[in-house]
Amino acid sequence: MRFAVLASGGGSNLQVILDRIHDGALPAECVFVASNNSHAGALERARVARIPAHHISSKTEGSEEAATAKLLALLEKNSCSLLVLAGYMKKVPVPVLQHLRNRVVNIHPGLLPAFGGVGHYGEKVHEAVEKRGCQFTGVTIHMVNEEYDEGQIVLQRTVPVPTGANAMAIGRLVLKKEHDSYWRVLKAFAEGDIVPTESTNPSQAVRINPEWLKSIRALDGPSLQ
Ligand code: GRF
User: Fold this and answer.
1) What residues make up the domain containing 8?
2) What is the pLDDT of residue 224?
3) Side by side, which strands form the sheet with 82-85?
4) In the chain, which end has fewer C-beta atoms inside a 10 angstrom radius, N or C?
């Protein structure tokens, strides 16, 4: 499976994915990493791993349309079958979503749909979880479509919130769970446990093997199976 990654930030999720490829646990190839942010740690991590790293933005390309065209050209040239968003802070352009229909996946540091949508990103999610006194938060990995945070959910894993934990502490726990989750979902794509469909119905973007889901839920304890 050949995939590309879009990331805007530090890239710790990208790093774990690259590490799992390196140690043989994830049978897939990351063909390039692109970022709208020239200072993204994710670009540096890609360079260290000798993966082509591209800074693509309306500034570098002259316009949003040109930036989209550049990304599309890279996806086509590299025969990407999956686009992985790992801390990407921009909306994916519609022509890219059309080109890779049901083949764009995102990780969200909270439980959707409750902690999603406009304004619910990064630290904001953890602040909301702290403010409401939530006893559980979690990770959601979902397919991406034109509506923000609304694509089909592929995997959710919960994270108990320790009594009195602040947003920063909650964020650390969630990130740890993210690191244990994203590569497993990519492995499932690579091994056919998650299969993109051609459906235009957002709730049928992918077919998920229930046995695979069971095996992931078993990681979090028997009560979740
Ligand atoms: C993660 O919390 C992810 O869920 C969110 O952005 C953050 C990216 O972290 N979408 P990193 O850049 O992978 O360290």
Assistant:
1) 1-100
2) 62
3) 53-55, 29-35, 2-6, 82-85, 104-108, 136-143, 153-160
4) C
Listed residues 70, 100, 130: the one ending a domain: 100
Q: CB of 179 closer than 6 A to ligand 1?
A: no
Ligand 1 within 6 A of CB of 107: yes
Place of tokens 């894993």: 157
Specify the pLDDT at position 119. 82
**Statement: residue 104 has pLDDT above 60:** yes
Strand partners, 153: 142
**Domain shared by 93 and 143, yes or no:** no
Residues 137 and 90 in one domain: no
Report the nearest-CA residue for atom 5 of ligand 1.
87
> Is 13 a pocket residue for ligand 1 (Cβ < 6 Å)?
yes
Domain count of the chain? Answer: 2
Active centre residues (catalytic): 108
pLDDT per position as a tens digit, 135-171 = 999 999 999 998 877 899 999 999 999 999 999 999 9
pLDDT at 225 over 60: no
Q: Supply the CATH number for residue 31's domain.
A: 3.40.50.170
Do 85 and 134 share a domain, yes or no?
A: no
- Residue whose CB lies within 8 A of the most ligand 1 atoms, among 85, 123, 175, 182, for a mutation test: 175
> Tokens at residue 115, please?
């902690």
